[in-house]
Hints:
Bound molecules: ligand BV8
Number of helices: 11
Strand order of the largest sheet: 3-2-1-7-8-9
Order of helices and strands: EHHHHHHEHEEEHEHEHEEH
Radius of gyration: 18 Å
Helix content: 25-40%
Shape: globular
Strand content: 15-25%
Number of strands: 9
Distance between the termini: 12 Å
Structural class: alpha/beta
Largest sheet: 6 strands, parallel
Amino acid sequence: MALEISDNTSVLVLTGAGVSAESGIQTFRASDGLWEKHAIEDVASPEGFFRDPALVWRFYSERRRSVSAAQSNAGHLALCALEEELGDRFLLATQNVDGLHERAGSKRVLALHGRLMQSRCSVCERPPFDDDALYLSALPMCARCEERGGSGLLRPHIVWFGEALDPNHLARVETFMNKAEDLLFLAVGTSGHVYPAAALVSVARALGGRSVLVNLDEAGNEGEFDEVFRGPSGVLLPSLLDL
Ligand code: BV8
């Protein structure tokens, strides 16, 4: 049942919350998912942040707390082993903000939707910085703005709905796919609802690439994939990647 990966195959992997589910991290759209308790627009949009920054910081602080206690799982490790084998014929674009791919050892990772363990200032152009602090009561303010006599609220370094993804990330994905002799697009643990990530399968197909989905339930863009393997990524990936 292993995927066909030959010496001229380039593998672009797109992961979503499902690949971290076996690490105990809640997904978004499951019945007990993260969005169940919070309306998306209230906690994952710039409007929601400016309306109630304390609520948003509580939401992201709770996620920082659970991610800090989490361990990478066999699905993360299988993708590390594939990267080891393929080198620059491997690229991992993740929608996850939990950093568990890097913690497992993945190097060639694009964090399309940002990083939970980084903050940035919502006012000045100070670059994002590592920050695993929990802000459950006082709102974090930017020290650099204060030095300049201003005031800037810190925000999680996350791409919220209605915000653009990093154009460099999208350019790297496009270049990788265009350069591939034999392209395999592998999506893992994503419901295929969020764009532009959910459109990558169509780009891969348009370039003549093969497309495979590994997912526990049916995904919104499932019909776009050549092959679908139903089940947990921590179980399926090691055998599909024949590691
Ligand atoms: C943008 C940060 C434009 C929050 C997130 C067309 C083109 C462009 C944009 C749009 C478009 N159509 C609509 C839009 C707007 C919007 C969008 O896509 N809306 C959707 C809801 C319709 N897109 C945007 O706003 C994007 N921005 O394009 O802006 C622009 C351009 C220029 C200038 C200005 C603006 C921004 C999108 C990013 C939003 N931020 N995250 C946070 O993480 O806190 S999205 C959020 O959803 C998470 O990042 C998450 O990763 C992502 C996708 O969810 P999934 O990862 O798929 O998780 P989900 O729970 O849904 O599914 C999990 C799956 O795993 C399930 O299917 C389950 O079966 C499976 N599973 C569970 N366990 C396992 C498993 N599988 C395997 N093994 C298991 N064990």
